Amino acid sequence: MAQTLPKCRNIIFTLLIFSSLLQAQSHKFANKLSPKTLGFAKEKLTHLHFYFHDIVSGDHPTAVRVAEAPMTNTSRTFFGALDVMDDPLTVGPEPTSKIVGRAQGIYASASLTEARLLMTLNYVFTEGKYNGSTLSILGSNSVFSKVREMSIVGGSGLFRFARGYALAKTHFFNLTSGDAVVEYNVYVLHY
What we know:
Layout: H1 4-26, E1 44-54, E2 63-67, E3 82-90, E4 99-109, E5 116-125, E6 134-142, E7 148-156, E8 163-173, E9 180-190
Antiparallel strand pairs: 1-3, 1-9, 2-3, 3-4, 4-5, 5-6, 6-7, 7-8, 8-9
């Protein structure tokens, strides 16, 4: 019996060390993977063209102010204003044009000296091949510049691992109501 106890201790000790090694291996933080292991083929470049309808007036606005600073309404740039949007994306500039998705997110007046918005939003596609896929946009939008460029920082669905840029060009802007139609040309690299 005296000899059995040391043998049992050695076996238990060995099992404890072995199980702790297994446990340490099963909780690895990061692994290098090949894109092929996730089913990704060759990377491709896609060009998307659509119109963004930002309606802030009327009974059915698609963008609404949710916060503002005490100085927002006296600032010539509306500094501190924060708006949430769910704007339709259409094939053409007309409000009756076919909807292909939504621009959902926020924009904030982020400059004291010019009309410049911080834009953070998702293009949520609802039609065709890209139905259910999204692109995530983050960037500065100097709204009175002829063409503005914003970064594509990611995506989902067919746009997983997306990167690229979006070019915005105002098609129509009503100074009285604040409603706008913006043409977008989007260039995105994805798998």
